[in-house]
Write a structure and sequence with these properties.
124 residues, mainly beta, Immunoglobulin-like, 4-stranded antiparallel β-sheet, 8 strands, extended
């Protein structure tokens, strides 16, 4: 199994856009979550995040994020996550490509929840 990676470059169009694909085949990965978390110095107590989900072609777009520094994460169940720090400017955006490598999914805990509901005899 390989490693996941995230690459990006400046784009003329404002906002953050891109594609998430599998390494080797470059097959699109739909349903991946792309998250931008604002990085402030000093850290802000209000964590601001922006999210997008990739479509059937593996593409995503986030227009609502204002210019600034962000931690960008790309995740999908069954794949290793990729992350990097990106910077958007007032006059340019970011075009990113995420390569997500397959990973073995392990669930640490499983459980069953049971709830008993009693209905009075006059409501049966």
């Amino acid at each position: 199994m390989g490693q996941s990676a995230l690459g990006w470059e400046r784009d003329r169009i404002n906002g953050v856009s891109g594609k998430v694909v599998a390494p080797g085949t470059l097959a699109p990965i739909h349903g991946a979550t792309v998250t931008l978390t604002v990085l402030t110095n000093p850290p802000d107590s209000r964590e601001r995040t922006y999210r997008a989900i990739t479509d059937d072609t593996g593409e995503f777009r986030i227009d609502s994020a204002p210019p600034g520094r962000y931690l960008m994460r790309v995740r999908r169940l069954g794949y290793r996550q990729a992350h990097d720090t990106i910077q958007t400017m007032p006059d340019s955006g970011v075009k990113a490509t995420g390569l997500l490598a397959r990973d073995i999914v392990r669930f640490d805990e499983c459980g069953i929840m049971y709830q008993e509901v009693r209905v009075p005899w006059w409501k049966r």
